[in-house]
Amino acid sequence: MPRTLAEKILLAHTDADDIAPGDIVMTRCDIVMANDISGTLAFHEMAKMGAARVWDPAKVVMVADHFMPAKDVRSAEMQKELKEWAIDQGVAFYDQGRGGIEHAVLVEDGWVVPGSVVAGGDSHTCTHGALGAFSTGLGSTDIAFALAFGEFWQSVPGTIEVTLEGEKRAFCSGKDVILAVLAEIGCDGGTNNVLEFVGPGAAALSIDERLAVSNLAVEAGSETGIFPADDVTAAYLEGRTDRPWTAERSDPGAEMARRLRIDLSSVDPLVALPHSPGNVVPLAEAKGQRIDQVYIGNCANGTMTDLRQAAEILRGRRVHDRCRAIIVPASQRIYRQALAEGLLDVFVEAGAVVSTPTCGACFGGGNGVLAAGENALATTNRNFKGRMGSPEAGVHLGNAWVAAAAAVAGEIVHPADVLEGVPA
Amino acid sequence: MQLEGKAVVIDQDNVDTDVLFPGQFLNVLDPERMKDHLFEGLDPSLRDQLGGDTILVVGENFGMGSSREHVPQAMKASGIRCVLGKGFARIFQRNCFNLGLMVVAAPDAVLAARPGSSIRIDTGAGTVEVDGATFTAPAVPPFVADMVGSGGLVGYAQRRLAGA
After folding, report:
1. Using a CB-CB distance cutoff of 8 angstroms, which residues of chain B are in contact with residue A191?
2. Is there a contact between A192 and B19 if contact means CB atoms under 8 Å apart?
């Protein structure tokens, strides 16, 4: 029987002989991940279960990234608990200054390979689907169970096949690809399904751009967003991992819950207006919106690709007097690479704040939250009311070119207008 | 499982977990203190309506967004017995089940419910009664019914560790 990629991965990680959408199966994990928020809650639930030790310390990764560096005493205590627990259990631990945002770290450091199952205590664990993994976000009690038994329960999802065709337009990135999908299916169109990205437009995306696409799969309600592994994946993993993997894809004729085609040559840079990632309009319709803060970073768009795009706009220009810009590389590795390429100089000279990697203001945790009445343009993944601080603030989501251009203009503009209008 | 209580209604679709429990309070680990921040970004006055017999009635795609378990932890601690909705986001729904908090999707029953309505839910029979009118609800998968019945994933795990 022809199967989807998600079904193949799940079947290889259960004791079941056969599976079909809707079946609930205990799914074995290759990696279990949590952070300073989800991890500490999970440890308490794990203790209630009566489980003293993790099932396999070699498959557990803890990352301090949310309230990092600690914003107050309570956050500091959570990070202390995370560290002490990780050391006691003998699991991998990335402390501040050693790793960065969990999803960037797991991918960069070769923890995730195609065909693997990753259970993460963070909804954006779907990001790792960019490498062809079934990687999904869970709550803390699920993580407690996964830490104790190496498994989680999962209702077998259907698959929405998203075929990407055509070449991206200028100043469009992976962010615009997934915003185009959200515009089409909305914030619950992917519920009980995974998104699988195929076609020439998917093959042409770099890993950084695939990460941005997969990252927002959960904003459509999906368990994960998968790119079947290909040559681009293989080249990326070369030298990063010694974990074995094979490239799989959905069988021809596999039953899809839905099929969607997106012609990238017809997609302009897009912006999600407050207060929903599904509230997507072409950039032209958001033009002129005053912007008080630009935030370039987070697990969706804090990659080298994003920082290079931002630097292309900010090199030799200044952040507008009415605006502030905060730039947050997603990991220490990206931070060092940006330093080596001189990008951090470009940002500092432009008058931007350059931050250590952190989840920070993206979830309103600190490091650049918004005041009432302020508007932000962020490369993040959520613009819910109050997400980045005051519930009276508005967050607009867009790609790094669009964000950097807004920083220079102090309002939403097309990046081409900044590059052509103001000589560098 | 049979549940009975009074409706507190959130008449809105796509309510996200950020408004239900804003990020700045995610450094709270004690469910008793989580109660103080529930619905903070939506309508804090809703907190005063919650008691030991509350059935929270919600719209489509309730609980979208972050996997933060603070939302169902705070709901449970506040005396919410069950969440009855038109539809739920996946991680929120499984977090509720894992904590032993039943979640039932029955859109017709939601349309009939008003603040203060008397609601009786029988998950085994697949029925929801709102002020005397009966509506059908989809069957709860046996695994979920068993887990929620044993107090959630903690109880399920305890049984597994005991070899039961």
Report:
1. 61, 87, 89-90
2. no
User: What would the pLDDT profile of B89-133 be if each residue is shown by its tens digit?
Assistant: 999 999 999 999 999 999 999 999 999 999 999 999 999 999 999
- Report whether pLDDT(A423) > 50: no
Inter-chain residue contact A187 with B61, CB threshold 8 Å: yes
Contact A141 B16 (CB under 8 A): no
Mutate to test the interface with A, among B13, B20, B24 (most CBs of A within 10 A): B24
From A223, which residue of chain B is nearest by alpha-carbon distance?
Answer: B90
**C-beta atoms surrounding A286 within 10 Å:** 22
DSSP β-ladder status, A258-263 and A158-165: parallel
Mean pLDDT value across residues A175-199: 98
Verify whether the Cβ–Cβ distance B27 to A78 is below 8 Å. Answer: yes
| A301: three-class secondary structure by DSSP | helix
Q: Tell me the C-alpha to C-alpha distance, in Å, between residue A415 and each of A308, A328, A341, A343, A349.
A: 14, 20, 22, 18, 19
Position B124: which residue type?
G
Higher-pLDDT residue of B164, A116 = A116
Q: What is the ipTM of this complex?
A: 0.98
Distance from CA of B132 to the nearest CA of A (A): 31
pTM of the shown model = 0.98
- Residue A421: the pLDDT is 76
Contact A406, A291 (CB under 8 A): yes
Strand pairing category for A280-282 and A270-272: antiparallel
Q: What is the DSSP letter of B88?
A: B
Residue in A418, A383, A388, A424 with CA at minimum distance from that of residue A404? A418
B41 HSE (CA, 13 A, CB side): 24
